[in-house]
Amino acid sequence: MDKMNPRPAGEESEPRVPTDLRKALAATPMAKAQWRDLTPIARRDFISWIDSAKQPETRRRRIEKTCSMLVAGKRRPCCYSIVSFNLYTALAATPTAKAQWSDLTPIERRDFISWMDSANQPEAHRRRIEKACVMLAAGKRRP
């Protein structure tokens, strides 16, 4: 724990659960119990997947699917790239990059994540996250 970050190192912040998802979880006790058992990063992945829907009907279906996946024991949304907490934090600190990230297709996001994750050393991975934010802010859709 340090002065800048009141959470112990490695502890993830709890994501804000959108109202429509919270209501759906409350209506499905088994899904709600599974939700509570997820890590904050896994919950954030589900929320990001739901929030990435462009149409209200798609969002509604993703919320329903989230509840069914949780009841079935799934711990991540299907076909969704895992965004590391470091990337999530870097995107949050760079609004133009975050906006571009939101506009990427799942395949384009996977390409960025694969490129970042292919770095062999933690420092190289960190540099790639920084470079990805610069590229995204400049409007690039591929690493």
Description of the structure:
By secondary structure, the protein is an all-alpha fold. Helices cover 64% and strands 0% of the residues. It has helices at 19-27, 29-37, 40-51, 56-71, 85-93, 95-103, 106-117, 122-137. Helix 5 (85-93) runs parallel beside helix 8 (122-137) and helix 7 runs antiparallel to helix 8. It is globular and about 45 Å long. Mean pLDDT is 86; it is low at 1-10.
What key attributes describe this structure?
2 domains; 143 residues; single chain; 8 helices
How do the helices and strands line up, and which of them pair or pack?
Blueprint: H1 19-27, H2 29-37, H3 40-51, H4 56-71, H5 85-93, H6 95-103, H7 106-117, H8 122-137
The percent range for helix content is: 55-70%
Summarize the biggest pleated sheet: none
Query: Which sequence of SSEs, written as H and E, runs from N to C?
Result: HHHHHHHH
How far the N terminus sits from the C terminus, by CA atoms, comes to 34 Å
Strand content: under 5%
Helix count from the secondary structure assignment: 8
Contiguous low-pLDDT stretches (5 residues minimum) are 1-10
Structural class comes to: mainly alpha
Q: Find the count of extended strands (DSSP E, 2+ residues).
A: 0
Query: What's the Cα radius of gyration?
Result: 16 Å
* Count of discrete structural domains: 2
